[in-house]
Amino acid sequence: MAAEHVPLQAIDHIEFFVGNAFQAAHFYRTMFGFNIIAHSGLTTGRQGQSSYLVEQGKIRFLLTSALSPDCPVARHCALHGDGVHSVAFRVEDVEATINAVKANGATVVKPMATWQDGFGELRFAAIRTYGDTVHTFIDRSDYKGIFAPKYVPIESIKTESAGLLAVDHVVGNVELGAMRYWADFYARVLGFTQLAHFSDDDISTEYTALMSKVMQSDNGLIKFPINEPAEGKKKSQIEEYLDFYNGPGVQHIAMATGNIIETVKRLQGAGIEFLYVPDTYYETLASRVGEIKEDFDELRKWGILVDRDEDGYLLQIFTKPVEDRPTMFYEIIQRKGSRGFGVGNFKALFVSIEEEQRKRGTL
Ligand code: FE2
Question: What pTM, to 2 d.p., does this model score?
Answer without folding.
Answer: 0.95
